[in-house]
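Exercise: predict the fold of this chain.
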Amino acid sequence: MLAVIPHPSLWWTGLRQALVLAPSGWWRRPPFLPLPAADYLRFRMETAYGGAGDQEPAPTDLVTYLRWCRDLR
């Protein structure tokens, strides 16, 4: 997440993606943050990096993903 700080042009895209990927009613359940479902993240990490899906994404991959989302719109 810190990898996005030097890229202000991606801040709104990051916020939009957080809200798009957050489960409905995220504000009613702790930790009261728009975080994607754990199963979804595990699946995405498994398909991206292999293994059990427990690997942390590379910071450059997050920036690349947000650029892709921004350009796709």
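Check your answer against the key: The two ends are 21 Å apart (CA to CA).
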